[in-house]
Amino acid sequence: MRRHRNAKILATVGPASDSDDTLRAMFAAGADVFRLNFSHGTHEEHARRYAIIRGLEKESGRPIGIMQDLQGPKLRIGRLEAGKVRLERGDVYRFDLDPAPGDRTRAPLPHPEIFACLEPGATILIDDGRMRLTAQEVKNDSAVFEVETGGELSDRKGVNVPGTVMPLSPLTEKDRRDLAFGMELGVDWVALSFVQRPEDLAEARRLIDGRAALMAKIEKPAALARLEELVELSDAIMVARGDLGVEIPPEEVPGRQKEIIYACRWAGKPVVVATQMLDSMVNSPAPTRAEASDVATAIYDGADAVMLSAETAAGHYVVESVAMMDRIISKTERDVSYRPIIEALHPPPEPTAPDAISAAAAQVAQTISAAAIVTYTSSGSTALRAARERPTAPLLTLTSRLSTARRLAVLWGAQCVHTADISSFPEMVEKASRIAVDNGFAQPGSKLAITAGVPFGTPGATNVLRIAWVGN
Predict the structure, then answer these.
(1) Would you state the pLDDT for residue 86?
(2) What is the distance between the alpha carbons of residues 151 and 157, in angstroms, rounded to a whole number?
(3) What's the pLDDT band for 163 if we cut at 50, 70, 90?
(4) How far is Cα 295 from Cα 300, in angstroms, rounded to an integer?
(5) Which of 8-22, 349-363, 437-451 has the lowest mean pLDDT?
(6) pLDDT of residue 472
(7) Distance (Å, rounded) from C-alpha 311 to C-alpha 320?
(8) E strands, 326-446, where?
(9) pLDDT of residue 306
(10) Beta bridge partners of 415
(11) Packing angle between helix 381-388 and helix 353-367, nearest 10 degrees?
């Protein structure tokens, strides 16, 4: 099932979409990667969804990526005696470690790490930024705040501490259990929440131990300050605009989104733009014009993928949301302004043989009007290099590793086929030609630009560019 677009679609699976028929319809509508959100659902529910997707993969013959999104630490206030309390601007309110239910003057905040890093003048945000309080007096077990933006404070509301590096691991005990379960299942990607610094990736890398690729979610201002290092140490990046949009002013989010996308394009790492892309389609059969423009902006910037969250997890128009995302991407990529924008932001090739071959393949394919660029890859690095060029020709990726094919489902332009290794140049050309024809990329007489590494099957050894004509 060939996709006639380059950017990919990640679709979150939830109560509204976990049936066999719905998942099949989502895939047919354009979903390339399915996201299992471990902030919700039981292991049994995720295992059932995983099994359905793998059955769909076998049925369709197309590799499908499955991403496990870990919850990460959640900072929340404790219980209130009356369940809620109204705070007005100018009120003085205390948070502390006392577990007793809160009242009109104080509330429990069972997170000593917050008090450890707070300083007078620091801001905390509650309930996704709806309430804003400024610290006046800070102790090891409590802090007194002045209410800047009032509202209704209720049990278990989330707390954000913007501009502060929290002394917290991004992996909670729940995350470690979930991650172990995900590795048993065989997920292809692990998305790590609450990343603040490069060291935060180390434990996840150790626990994953090469069994999945690691995607760092950028949702903290501290992560933006170390962006280049995080891009280098991760396999992909997610622009997690939900929490990021709470912790930094909304007017800064578009510019930061572009900054992250460009950093990933420069490094040749996949980047996913997520959160509220078609949010109105949770309850409406059509998006707002602003939402359509938001998706298109990410595509013009060169994002590898865009993600649907509540739209497909809990919405009333699950399949319609995927189909709409597919149409917006396809229309944007056909727009006359798309190629000039993409090429204006094109990073130069790095001084390596694989980059030189990939850059040459993109240029050759455009010059000879090749039907496709065919890349043989083992680890996926050849496909990453090829996609970094954002070529005009379709990118057909052949790999002997099913795990590689599944991970590349998130990569811009990569249409992956799982096939056996090759051992000679004639076989390289014959297989590339046959698969290109069988998958609708070429027909007899078409030209192909083929890249591979010699010795064949050696990871990261791309050193051959071959122009071939498809025979009868």
Answers:
(1) 95
(2) 12
(3) confident
(4) 9
(5) 349-363
(6) 67
(7) 9
(8) 372-376, 395-399, 414-418
(9) 98
(10) 396
(11) 50
Query: What's the rounded Cα separation, in Å, for the pair 243 and 237?
Result: 15
Q: Which two tokens stand for residue 158?
A: 């989330």
Mean pLDDT of the chain: 95
Tell me the pLDDT tens digit for each residue of 94-118.
999 999 999 999 999 999 999 999 9
**Distance, CA of 441 to chain centre:** 27
Whether the link from the prior residue into 167 is cis, omega within 30° of 0, is no
- HSE-CB for 297 with a 13 A CA cutoff: 14
- How far apart CA 389 and CA 24 sit, in angstroms, is 32
Long-range contacts: 294-297, Cβ < 8 Å, 24+?
295/325, 295/328, 295/329, 295/332, 296/328, 296/331, 296/332, 297/254
Contact 448, 467 (CB under 8 A): yes
Show the tokens assigned to 92: 């003085």
Mean pLDDT of 259-270: 96
Provide CATH code, domain 353-469. Answer: 3.40.1380.20
The catalytic residues are: 35, 76, 217, 275
d(CA 257, CA 277): 13
Tokens 């076989």, located at residue:
427
* Token pair in block for residue 218: 């950028």
* Angle in degrees, 0-180, between the axes of helices 289-300 and 253-267, rounded to the nearest 10: 30
Binning pLDDT at 50, 70 and 90, where does residue 1 land? low
Span 444-455, mean pLDDT?
Answer: 92
The fold for domain 8-72+170-338 equals TIM Barrel (3.20.20)
The least confident of 63-77, 151-165, 364-378 is 151-165
Give the length of the chain: 472
How far apart, in Å, do the first and last CA atoms of the chain sit? 23
Distance between CA atoms of residues 449 and 467, nearest Å: 5
pLDDT band at 459 (very low <50, low <70, confident <90, very high): confident
Q: What are the extents of the domains in the chain?
A: 8-72+170-338, 84-160, 353-469
Three-class DSSP category at 40 = coil
Task: Say how many CA atoms lie within 13 Å of 136 toward its Cβ.
Answer: 12
User: Do the beta carbons of residue 415 and residue 61 sit within 8 Å?
Assistant: no
For the domain with range 84-160, which CATH number is right: 3.40.50.1390, 2.30.42.10, 2.40.30.60, 2.40.33.10? 2.40.33.10
CB 353 within 8 A of CB 462: yes
Tokens of residue 394, six digits: 């379709």
Neighbours of 175 (CB within 10 A): 24
Scanning 268-317, the segments in alpha helix (DSSP H) are 289-300, 310-313
**Calpha distance 303→239 (Å, rounded):** 10
